[in-house]
Amino acid sequence: MIKLRLKKYGKKREVSYRIVAINSASRRDGRPLEELGFYNPRTDETRLNVPAIVTRLKQGAQPSDTVRSILKKAQVFEQVKVNG
């Protein structure tokens, strides 16, 4: 199963995350299938590749709880419903 989840990177106490599509059996910082965006919790900055995320969601990818809340804020799920 493909999951959309956060991949941690950066220095200690200055962590940022990449939103990635990855096999659910892979470890958190393992090699992803595709990088779909960026999230910085300290500044609340988000950059998303929305067309790629919509494609992955239509293929049946399941977002983690945190990624789901990020996508809700960016209103990505509305685009999946409109296009699907």
Biggest β-sheet description = 5 strands, mixed
Order of helices and strands: EEEEHEHH
CATH architecture: 2-Layer Sandwich
Helix percentage: 25-40%
The CATH superfamily is identified as Ribosomal protein S16
Please count the helical segments. Answer: 3
Q: Care to count the β-strands?
A: 5
Beta-strand level of the residues, as a percent range? Answer: 35-45%
* Class from helix and strand fractions: alpha+beta
Looking across the biggest beta sheet, what order are the strands in? 4-3-2-1-5
Summed up, the domain count is 1
Shape: globular
Q: For this structure, what is the CATH class?
A: Alpha Beta
Using the CA coordinates, give the radius of gyration. 12 Å
In whole angstroms, how far apart are the ends? 21 Å
Mean pLDDT: 90
The low-pLDDT segments are: none
Descriptive notes:
The protein has 84 residues and is of the alpha+beta class. It has one domain (2-83): Ribosomal protein S16 (S16 Ribosomal Protein, Chain: A, 2-Layer Sandwich). It is 31% helix and 39% strand. It is built from 3 helices and 5 strands; from the N terminus they run E-E-E-E-H-E-H-H. The chain has helices spanning 50-58, 65-73, 76-83, and strands spanning 2-11, 14-23, 34-40, 45-48, 62-63. Strands 4-3-2-1-5 form a 5-stranded mixed sheet. Strand 3 (34-40) and strand 4 form a beta hairpin. The two termini are 21 Å apart.
